[in-house]
Amino acid sequence: MHPNRTDIARLYESLRLIRRVEEAIADVYPTDRIKSPIHLSIGQEAVSVGVIDTLAPADIVAASYRCHAAYLAKGGDLKAMIAELFGKAAGVAGGKGGSMHLIAPEVNMLGASAVVATQIPLAVGAALTQKMKGTGAIVAVFLGDGATEEGVFHESLNFAALKRLPVLFVCENNGYSIHTPLRARWATDRLTERVATYGLPAARIADGDVFAIRDQAAGFVASIRDGRGPAFMEVQTYRWKEHVGPNADFDAGYRPESEARPWIDNDQLPRLGALIDAEERAAIDARVETAIAEAFAFAEAASPPPLEDLLAHVHA
Fold this sequence. Notes:
Largest sheet: 5 strands, parallel
CATH architecture: 3-Layer(aba) Sandwich
Strand content: 5-15%
Order of helices and strands: HHEHHHEHEEEHEHEHHH
């Protein structure tokens, strides 16, 4: 897929929106107006943006607790997202789910899951549903490198391959499971090779290039849509902020700032911005800032859930 001017502008706007929303969240978080933990995608936005740009509106997205980027790239409502973070009734989960449980059924975004790897079998179940109903829709599920160490990841790969399900597995490999690096967890880093043994095509993208991500995803999406079964992408990336929270954590002793520098230098946002006419870029930036300001104002003014909702939706 050779990106044209319209493609580049669309990708830039999606990257810009996610980056600026999360920077705004990081700024507000210390005030305690945000009522849930936050797992920011700053530095990793290109993975969600590149993959989701290849999907159709009817296609389904599943994500983990680091879900802001996928939610926004899929077209989730920004006002409802910020209201959810603020614990307000107008939020996507009525103010009860917070940052880790974003959901947007109107754009086919499954509810994000806060327990490591649990979104994977849910996505596979959704893919099985699409196949049984003959909808033609596919499912893209985003997961971290830590999730690949859970048994359900392997069970899901095997089942999806066995049943030739329409699901694209996307591993956002940022090199850390919370604070533990890959070298302390994996005997080898050949994840993509291991996945391929389950009998599905698997590809690795090492540099976080949004166009390379988009091209690889487009090829896999076309293959899946043709009925050839699931596929797997491992995309190396890097989170700039701490595992959970708004701060940098390079002084915490588990990773050096020098490790982040190549990724910051390869930031896809200014790269795409430089490919757009300055006037068009300014218009996009202004549109993004207006949307963010309106969303935070909406969340501030919204009402908290009423007390009588305290026990609503409680199973037992």
